[in-house]
């Protein structure tokens, strides 16, 4: 009689949530509820500052998704900020759509445009990809600057939202900014807990290794590129719903991407918390150093260089190195010897072990 032997597999389960992530979710919901009421108690200056913070947060999260997770270092995301701004103008002023309807419509159109540009951008790799995205942004700037239908080089003023009134427009812009800010964080956290997030982690570790495991590298990067492009366009539309005046040189300025990079590098590349910390630091420095004139930019550069040298993983990376924690539960963990859904617990005399 033949016998077979099998090695017993210890019980395990995969977890994403942690006590810290659950606490962060509760705090986030409470903060969202309080901030949603800001139009009732906050002044216009305070609300405009929060609009800028939330839109910059969304832009930084999108750039972090591209560069920090997919390894696609783009210096041309200003293309989609500008297209989002002009898309809002066309939707509200030319088509007569309400801003709440114009933004989803432009998001769909931007997705198609991003798909078209990816056919050119994805032929390039590394530094050539970064330069290629900047060239694409410049092409869009030149095309818009020559289009008389949207004011050419003189730009245009969004008048399709005038029916809301100053206070109504400010409140609507604030709620949209609040939604896109919190939404960008939730979106990235959800992506990193999904199969797409697992694929992105594999790509970040080794693109060749990920491909050998059956991951479609092109489709994974394309999905992230489309998401980030649409996210930047929506944020751009909200920014210019607040500013109203659109000029091509400003809307397609590389300064937008420079801010994204600064925020992500300062906060922590490849971490969801990084753009949050970086946006807070950026806004704080700008408000503190506003009276220094052009010296403000020099100080920002010195801060960026100093933190890059002293804390290569960003401020959040420096923090978690001393106080390990996971705020958003975006990192799956294998818990060995843990209680299983069938009720089997760890072997006698053992304790659950977590493997990140």
List the helices and strands and how they pair.
Blueprint: E1 12-15, H1 19-36, H2 38-41, H3 44-69, H4 78-94, H5 99-121, H6 127-145, E2 156-157, H7 165-193, H8 195-205, H9 207-212, H10 217-243, E3 245-246, H11 248-251, H12 255-267, H13 273-288, H14 295-310, H15 314-322, E4 333-336, E5 353-355
Antiparallel strand pairs: 1-4, 2-3, 4-5
Protein model, in words:
This protein is mostly helical and 356 residues long. It has a domain at 27-264. It has 15 helices and five strands. α3 packs across α13 (273-288), α4 runs parallel beside α6 and α4 packs across α10. 35% of the residues are buried.
Largest sheet: 3 strands, antiparallel
DSSP strand content: under 5%
Mean of all residue-level pLDDT scores: 85
Instruction: Supply Rg.
Output: 23 Å
* Structure annotation, total helices: 15
Quick recap of the structure?
The chain has about 350 residues and is mainly α.
Label this structure with key terms:
single chain; disordered N terminus; 356 residues; two-stranded antiparallel sheet; globular; mainly alpha; 67% helix; 3-stranded antiparallel sheet
């Amino acid at each position: 009689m033949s016998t077979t032997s099998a090695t017993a597999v210890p019980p395990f389960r995969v977890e994403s949530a942690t006590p810290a992530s659950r606490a962060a979710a509760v705090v986030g919901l409470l903060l969202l509820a309080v901030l949603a009421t800001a139009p009732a108690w906050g002044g216009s200056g305070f609300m405009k500052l929060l609009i800028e913070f939330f839109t910059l947060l969304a832009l930084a999260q999108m750039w972090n998704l591209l560069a920090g997770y997919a390894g696609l270092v783009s210096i041309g995301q200003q293309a989609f900020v500008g297209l989002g701004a002009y898309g809002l103008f066309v939707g509200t002023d030319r088509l007569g759509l309400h801003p709440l309807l114009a933004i989803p419509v432009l998001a769909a159109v931007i997705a198609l445009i991003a798909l078209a540009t990816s056919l050119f951008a994805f032929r390039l790799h590394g530094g050539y990809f970064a330069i290629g995205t900047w060239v694409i942004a410049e092409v869009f700037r030149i095309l818009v600057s020559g289009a008389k239908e949207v004011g050419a080089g003189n730009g245009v003023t969004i008048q399709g939202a005038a029916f809301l009134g100053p206070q109504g427009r400010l409140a609507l812009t604030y709620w949209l900014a609040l939604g896109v800010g919190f939404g960008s964080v939730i979106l990235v956290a959800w992506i990193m807990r999904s199969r797409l997030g697992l694929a992105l982690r594999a790509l970040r570790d080794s693109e060749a290794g990920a491909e050998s495991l059956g991951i479609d590298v092109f489709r994974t990067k394309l999905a992230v590129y489309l998401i980030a492009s649409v996210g930047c366009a929506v944020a751009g539309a909200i920014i210019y719903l607040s500013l109203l005046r659109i000029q091509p040189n400003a809307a397609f300025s590389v300064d937008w991407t420079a801010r994204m990079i600064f925020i992500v590098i300062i906060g922590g590349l490849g971490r969801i918390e990084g753009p949050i910390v970086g946006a807070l630091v950026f806004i704080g420095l700008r408000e503190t150093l506003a009276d220094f004139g052009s010296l403000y930019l020099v100080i920002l550069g010195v801060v960026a260089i100093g933190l890059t040298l002293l804390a290569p993983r960003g401020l959040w990376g420096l923090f978690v190195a001393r106080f390990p924690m996971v705020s958003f539960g975006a990192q799956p963990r294998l818990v060995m010897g843990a209680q299983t859904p069938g009720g089997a617990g760890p072997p006698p005399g053992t304790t659950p072990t977590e493997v990140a």
